[in-house]
Amino acid sequence: MHIHLRATRPSDADIYSRDNVRRAWLSVKRRFPLLAAEVQEEDGGSYFVLREENVVSLREGDVTFGTVSSFHDVERFINVYHGWSTSTFLEIVNSRILCFRRTDRPDHFHVVIVVAHCITDGSSTSTILRTFFQTLASPYDPSPLSIEARLQMYNPLESRIRLEDVSPAKRRWRKALGHAVQTVLRSRFKRRKLTPAKARRQIIGFSRELSALILSNCQRHNVTLNSAYYVLSQVALSRLLCRRYLRGEISEEEWEYRKREPMFFAGPLNLRPYQDQDWFEKGGLGEVGLNVSAFRYILPFMPLGAMSGKDAGNLELLDGAPLFEDLMSFNRFLLRCEVLSSQAQKLFGHPRFVDICVAEHNVRQDMAKAAALTWRGTGELRRAKSQCAAVYSRTFTWSDTDTGGLELGKQYWDVHIHARPAELYLGAATYQRQLQFFTFYDENVFGAETVREWLGEIRDAMLWYLGQPQDDTRGPTTKTKSKL
């Protein structure tokens, strides 16, 4: 997480001092002791190990201070940090915070918070951010509970699922059913040996005016943005593949295979609403932990429209690929969005929905754990740790003076997710009423230029299907060529 802050008025002179930052982060660790846990291998297994001294005091590397000369220096540092292997964090702390003061603009500051995905998810990340900055801006620390009381909130996810008055036998039966259904759903995917990801990120954005228009058109046609950008990512991929096929870069055999292959999407699913009421009342909703599963959407074969006909050679091309309206009409776009909506309704309406999701949660964690333990036995971990030591051996300068006091105003924030091996993750968010699309991917599998081309096609598809004035029935009326 990268947060860019700016001083807005001369007050609270010590708010961003070293001592105050350390105090705030230590308070966050006491509130959420899982942040102080380490992953260690003992007795043939891998476990979270939590030592009381790591909760009540700061370790070396917990808080790091530095100076940078520009915003882009911070982004470059994050990209280097982000490029380390996932295995870097197996024997290093699960969380840390880095603070950078700007030399070109002394009233600007950058905070980078690093948290391992094995102990947090999106909601937990927001909780950590909110708690840290509230504590940083307050001269008082909340009264900490005992470590024993805090650890009671960290029971396994499956033990916290709301089951009402269900006997132990029926619980085991439901768990077995969930696992059976999940096994069938996963059977179509082949497992393969994975190497640590070379994580990279790319992002595109829209103006406030275009963002408002896109969201308004989604509402007008009763389409969720989530469904829309999945469908648009597919038509964007169609244009990318058509361009390569027309250039002769894809063989006829591969082209025929690509034409018939469905497209699979996976995304996070929050399981907090389905957990025990007693856990909720004790503050579980605002607790840090991994409380998500994954859902899967399936779209049929890629939209080719007129490209699949006999007269494909006569199609009008734009940048070497058919126009959007020749690949997928606006009505077809709405239909595919409805297909995704129908799949979501079936998933949430399944009588064993929660059990399936818990089974998926457990399988995903077991697979990640197995891969990490495999990497542990290679030289990858040693190389990554040497990179970590090299970066943190630098001498940073940091001055607590010359601030004149400050009150912090948020200028910018962003999340950098470390992609899993062979992953291409597409997401969307709004910041200051501006819509952004971002992708986290494994550069060992997906080339940067290919991902950039695909994101550009997604942006253009969004502009054509949802980024122009529409009425309630006809959809876009402007040709792709004139619009782009």
Query: Quick one: biggest sheet?
Result: 5 strands, mixed
Bin the strand percentage: 15-25%
The strand order across the widest sheet is 4-5-6-1-12
State the helix count. Answer: 16
Rounded to an integer in angstroms, the radius of gyration calculated over CA atoms is 25 Å
Question: Could you report the average pLDDT, rounded to the nearest whole number?
Answer: 80
Low-pLDDT sequence parts: 85-92, 381-407
The helical percent reads 40-55%
Strand-pairing-aware structural class: alpha+beta
Global geometry:
globular
Straight-line N-to-C gap: 33 Å
H and E order: EHEEHEHEEHHHEHHHEHEEEHHHHEEEHH
What keyword list fits this structure?
18% strand; five-stranded mixed sheet; 16 helices; 484 residues
Walk me through this protein's architecture.
- With about 475 residues, the protein is of the alpha+beta class.
- Helices cover about 40% and strands about 20% of the residues.
- It contains 16 helices and 14 strands.
- The strands form five sheets. Strands 4-5-6-1-12 form a five-stranded mixed beta sheet. A three-stranded antiparallel beta sheet has the order 7-14-13, covered by helices on one side. Strands 2-3 form a two-stranded antiparallel sheet.
- Helix 6 (about 170-185) packs across helix 13.
- The model is unreliable at about 85-90 and about 380-405 (pLDDT under 50).
